[in-house]
Amino acid sequence: MTRDLTDAARRDWLRLARTENVGPVTFDQLIGRYGEASIALAALPDLARRGGRVSPLGVPSLSEIEAELERGARLGARLIAACEPDFPASLAALDPPPPVIWAWGDTDLLHRSAVAVVGARVASASGQRFARGLAADLGAAGQVVVSGMARGVDGAAHEGALATGTVAVLGGGPDDVYPSEHRELHARIIAEGCVVSENAPGRTAQAKDFPRRNRIIAGLSRAVVVVEAEVRSGSLITARLALEQGREVLAVPGSPLDPRAKGCNDLIRQGAALCEGADDVLRALEGWRGFGEPEGPSFLAATPGDAEIDALREQVFALISPTPVTRDDLIRAVGAPPAHVLAALAELALAGRVEFSPGGAVART
């Protein structure tokens, strides 16, 4: 259910989203359990203590939140919360959605049909040419092209779609230009397209930010096309996340002699659709039924008591290992009401004892 936020509620929402150990999954559980960010913020110290945390939880001050909002305003970027009507429907359909995004440029592009084109940073000349041409053809067919503004395939895809609409999803803040040689491309995307980031203006990307960035690339798109990718690459992470989200995945075949083709060839072997041009992508999108926003959590209807969570917390923790397990599998293994298990997980996450992957699986830290 969407709603407009007051200025005070917006600050609380952002403050909760920026709190230590509060990722999208924990944020979603807290809002579901307490209904308002302000109430969740007040409950955080006790929740973290009950989860086993000894040191104080890092909650940003109101002045830090005001500083982030002011930096964004100076850029001309816009903060959109997941509960607001202008939040992209494609991202709202994720389980869970990112709590907030910064959008800089033409935000109308975030509500149009989109296809992601991703691939190797050290891409071949032919791979870059194919990505550029594919993006131009998809744009001519009415699709917005989404990518990550990295070297190689990403940059070529953005260039091919500048005239028709492109969205760059960044690992750092919306003003974090990486690589530095894409500074002009970044400026052109702001002027003609849109830059999106889950992180605050002024933040430099860290390694842990890129899987979350890849999740948003896939989440904004109806289909993901991988042009070139080695067997261990971020592009394959994007493809896996797209499959988990119910998006279409296509791959461009390549020579078995080129290591940059191995990841794409493996995707095709595993069932990804073969892509030789825009027509293949458009065929894959035929019959698209649209994004269905997931039902809101049921915590408010059946909020577990503290004693119920206390009795369950260590049982839940004992079933979690360093190998990620999905929340659904964990709920089945515990055999308790989902609301109780998820509330216990939120407390363990706040304590720093477990962490969630971008796809929502949980593992011990």
Question: Spatial order of the strands in the main sheet?
Answer: 1-2-6-5-4-3-7-8-9
Structural class: alpha/beta
Global Rg: 21 Å
- What's the total number of strands? 11
- Reading the helices and strands in chain order gives HHHHEHEEHEHEHEHEHEHEHHHHEE
Give start-end ranges of low-pLDDT stretches. Answer: 296-301
Average predicted local confidence, pLDDT: 94
The termini sit apart by 33 Å
Label the overall shape.
Answer: globular
Strand portion, in percent? 5-15%
- Sheet with most strands: 9 strands, mixed
The DSSP helix count reads: 15
The amount of helix comes to: 40-55%
Report on the architecture of this protein.
The longest helix has 16 residues, at 125-140. This protein has 15 helices and eleven strands. The strands form two sheets. It has a nine-stranded mixed β-sheet, sandwiched between helices. The protein is an alpha/beta fold and 365 residues long. The chain has helices at 7-17, 24-34, 37-51, 62-75, 89-92, 125-140, 153-161, 183-192, 209-219, 234-244, 259-269, 278-284, 306-318, 327-334, 338-350; strands spanning 78-81, 100-105, 114-118, 144-147, 166-170, 194-197, 223-226, 248-251, 273-274, 354-356, 362-364. The protein starts with 6 loop residues before the first helix and ends with a strand. Helix 2 crosses helix 15 (338-350) and helix 3 (37-51) crosses helix 15 (338-350).
What's the structural blueprint in terms of helices and strands?
Layout: H1 7-17, H2 24-34, H3 37-51, H4 62-75, E1 78-81, H5 89-92, E2 100-105, E3 114-118, H6 125-140, E4 144-147, H7 153-161, E5 166-170, H8 183-192, E6 194-197, H9 209-219, E7 223-226, H10 234-244, E8 248-251, H11 259-269, E9 273-274, H12 278-284, H13 306-318, H14 327-334, H15 338-350, E10 354-356, E11 362-364
Helix pairs in contact: 1-3, 2-15, 3-15, 6-7, 9-10, 13-15
